[in-house]
């Protein structure tokens, strides 16, 4: 990740770190979107097709926030499309699936049924030990993320060493 991107992420984290309101919840999804956009730049997918699809599971408010934050952004010259994941078919049609805090059992059920090949599953809850490749974590007031290289490799995805250098690696 470039120094400029790290500076932007750090500034946003510092700016949002102390807020505990509905705006803070919106800010956390802005941060998650920023991280996920950087994931698109530092993870290698196979056979993406004509659009890069990000599915958001479980919350229309989060879906709208992610749509807003990805507006106008591209993946390798391709449009980024944000969809609502209501079932396994939607997850299977996505290159990235984001699961904000929700009903953990439903998230895990959808995840277990999904075809994980060429799909990056990202969770707000720490679900790396349950098979998710990436989970967001809070360390004090700072947002970070955990990566399971084993789970990424099982999905057929490759992660750059620069992104790994920013992560807490669990295996």
Question: Care to describe what's here?
Answer:
- This protein is α/β, with parallel strands linked by helices and 171 residues long.
- It has a single domain, classed as Rossmann fold, CATH 3.40.50.
- Helix content is 42%, strand content 25%.
- It is built from seven helices and ten strands.
- The strands form two sheets. It has an eight-stranded mixed sheet with strand order 3-4-2-5-6-7-8-10.
- A hairpin with a 2-residue loop joins strand 7 and strand 8.
- Helix 1 packs antiparallel against helix 2.
- The chain is globular, with a radius of gyration of 15 Å.
- About 6% of the residues have low confidence.
What does the secondary structure layout of this molecule look like, with pairings?
Layout: H1 3-16, H2 22-42, E1 43-44, E2 51-57, H3 60-70, E3 74-75, E4 78-85, H4 88-92, E5 96-99, H5 104-113, E6 120-123, E7 134-139, E8 142-147, H6 149-154, E9 158-159, H7 161-164, E10 168-169
Parallel strand pairs: 2-4, 2-5, 5-6, 6-7, 8-10
Antiparallel strand pairs: 1-9, 3-4, 7-8
Helix pairs in contact: 1-2, 2-3
């Amino acid at each position: 990740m470039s120094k400029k991107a790290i500076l932007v992420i750090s500034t946003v984290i510092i700016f949002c770190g102390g807020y505990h309101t509905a705006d803070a919840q919106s800010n956390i999804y802005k941060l998650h979107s920023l991280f996920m956009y950087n994931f698109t730049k530092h993870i290698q997918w196979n056979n993406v097709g004509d659009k890069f699809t990000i599915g958001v599971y479980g919350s229309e408010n989060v879906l709208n926030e992610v749509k807003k934050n990805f507006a106008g952004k591209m993946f390798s010259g391709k449009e980024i499309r944000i969809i609502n994941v209501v079932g396994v078919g939607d997850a299977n049609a996505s290159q990235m699936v984001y699961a904000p805090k929700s009903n953990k059992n439903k998230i895990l059920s959808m995840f277990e049924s999904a075809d994980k090949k060429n799909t990056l599953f990202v969770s707000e809850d720490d679900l790396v030990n349950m098979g998710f490749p990436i989970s967001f974590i809070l360390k004090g007031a700072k947002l970070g993320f955990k990566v399971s290289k084993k789970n990424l490799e099982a999905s057929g995805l490759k992660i750059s060493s620069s992104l790994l250098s920013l992560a807490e690696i669990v295996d």
